[in-house]
Please model this.
Amino acid sequence: MNNNTIPDLEEQSEVEVYGARVHNLKNIDVSFPRNQLVVITGLSGSGKSSLAFDTIYAEGQRRYLETFSAYSRQFLGGLERPDVDKITGLSPVIAIEQKTTSKNPRSTVGTITEVYDFLRLLYARASEAFSYVSGKKMARLSEDQIIDQILNQFDNQAINVLAPVVKGRKGHYRELFEQIRKQGFVKVRVDGELMDLMPKMQVDRYKTHDIEVVIDRLLVSQQDRKRLVSSVQQAMKHAKGVIKISDVSNKEYFFSRFLMDPESGISYDEPQPNTFSFNSPYGACEHCDGLGYVFQLDRESVIPDVKLSIMRGGILPIGEYKDNWTFQQLKALGKKYGFSLTTPIKELSEEHLDIIFHGAPDIITVPVSYNKWNVKNYQITYDGLIKQWEEQLEQKGGVSDLDDYRSLRTCPTCHGARLKKEALHFKIDDKNIAQLAEMDIAGLAEWFEGLENRLNERQKTIAVEILKEIRSRLGFLLDVGLDYLTLNRTARTLSGGEAQRIRLATQIGSQLVNVLYILDEPSIGLHQRDNERLINALKDLRDLGNTVLVVEHDKDMILAADYVIDMGPAAGSHGGEVVAEGTPHEIESSRTLTADYLTERREIVVPSERREGNGEFLTLEKASGNNLKNVTVSFPLGCFIAVTGVSGSGKSSLITETLYPILNKHIFRAKKTPLPYKKLVGLEHIDKVIEIDQSPIGRTPRSNPSTYTGVFSDIRNLFVQLPEAKIRGYKPGRFSFNVKGGRCETCKGAGMKVIEMNFLPDVQVPCETCQGKRYNRETLEVRYRGKSISDVLDMRIADAMEFFEPIPSIYRKIKTLNDVGLGYLTLGQSSVSLSGGEAQRVKLATELSKKDTGKTFYILDEPTTGLHFEDVNVLLGVLNRLVNRGNTVLVIEHNMDVIKVADYVIDMGPEGGQRGGELVFSGTPEELARNKRSKTARFVAMELGNKLVDKK
Model:
């Protein structure tokens, strides 16, 4: 058989799904080709994730677990069979989701991608050590080299051969001296002074000492080489590989079999990969335990009002004067150092405050009276309030009321590098491992180019295989558009899209074949410019021989697919059907909502004129956090502002980490410290700030849109006011399914019961007592307009809006949920079943239902996540209504449909990471389209096409 021909294994060429009924899927049959790039698209809530993850992925996972023995499965817990008749042609399935980001502060980009593991190996085997004292290169000498060097350096000189046995430690060392004496030695050198060994000899136990055994005193000469060899061997045996030579003028020289600085005598252990690990006690900085930051007490939080005295509660954590040990100590301190506890804190000197917080150098006398005649004086050393509080924190396991007074600070010992100083003095091409971890991936890949030419022969031989691995992994990260990330970036700070693309890069590197990959919107947080690289990366995965199934709304991704499945026609109970499937060209010729937007039969309209704003500005001056390069930017108020720029250009640093914390601190006294900046002008023009981020609204099935928005409390209060409830004496708690009283106690208000099945997955069945209604019979007898509290929870939001129209407080909250396009959800729908886009819109509706002041500043981070073109249109309508009422809406966004309708655009860049962090442009989208420096301009120009021609 010809080796180049692929054998026909008669495998099925398609994945076929029959009778899928998970969530809102309406018993659908669907098939798609294997080994192709397949996109599932459709409105938010139309059933895309239900088909991709809850049906296809869940079945793949279940089949994998079925291969385990029954004994193993009882420990793993089984997986429920998805509600589907049959799936054929399924390969092993790997899901690359957004929700899998680790929240562990020790997990970094370097550790997830394994690049840092290879760097540790490279530094352990091929680096050169330098002394942290003298900066000189450390020497590692063999016994013969040491002897030759002594003969050359001290020819015809009298020397002492010394074995260092104690270095910089306290103690009396009586037993050590006795032991040395019994071994036949007659002299020792203590702290540089030669002494005869005497019986019962000891030194001051409270001072630090250097003790060396005098092994031999001799005149160095070639004839006496034998004696020198014997002495050096003896010294090395006693001092574990290290010896010291002192000459007639008492000058010292060190020699060692290990890495040692000949000048200062410090030595390092042989480097191992864990020497460079911040997750190992061998490598981690001892002050911060390898985290790179420490919690420190924040002086401003501890003393919020300097006009108060200590007696009147000026130091917040200890409160006003009480007759306790802390205040007795402070009184005694005041008496000794001449300050009063009744003096306002602002009048106390910095020296006095330093003593109060960090401790006193002298012993103080604290008198404690037990009654009128019995007073006892305690002589104590005072360690300071901070030491006391830290001990208190340790006793309580790191959680206490003091958390409000602590803030994160970069570790003062390692300056954020996370490693011990020894590890930071191993270098390759003048760079230590922490400096490489601080470089962005683009810069790091550049540094590794041609590294062999900068290494010596020994290093080159060792490094060749390791460098191959590092370069290939960096290459995959560059392919998916993550060139701006640094290896030391913690995983918890990554967006869902970034974490997903890192996993995608890892999968491309693993070179698996015949796998079905399922991805959930990998283009999130990616600039249009980088979209092409991502699509190519997915095609590479396909070309290896895999099926790639992507849930996506991005136009470029849909058009680049081999096959498209369009879900709809609407959302929720009105969705769950396949409205079109085929190649992108076939989809365009169908009459679905998606096709209308792809062919521009329907579009998001560019406004005829841009709002000028109310004439007021917020001006942020000289923001310099992360990669920001002293950025000064003005935000016009009363406008719809879009902040754009390539991934990693500094958008989040500028808005969510600098601007938002400043506004939040000013308006709500929030604790989060903003990144460095000079000043913010114009704060008086806003009186409220609201940030709507992408975190889920709840992690338990008991959380739902009605509880999150707070409308459920109003509904419960309404039921309490009903005559039937008043007669029975019901309180609001009676109508809660989370507390005893009104809920069904059989299922504890869950509505479902879990039946444990040995060797099979647990089964959820409706509770036999309440039939899934969550409440007991008495509670359900109270009805409003013929509906019980359970019926209300089962109502669709669109129906509930009409139902509660007579009650303004409830109507307003439900209407906002409907306005953001969530009319198809039920009020009691479990938050666990909501998609990312739905959860974010529930948050948005919650904020919209609150009364805005007309001076509110709204900040939204990529609100179009998980939204179809039509959903984006609805969302823009809501945001524009907010702006029309005088508020300011700022969105961080890559979606061109949002950018083109903004009144004002702030573009960051020009690139990501270290090559970004500048303000490239600010002005209208039309002006941006003509900007030559902006990476966003070309795409805005394409969107505005006709309008720009008209203006010319």
The CA atoms of residues 142 and 307 lie 68 Å apart. Residues 1-10 have pLDDT under 50 and may be disordered.
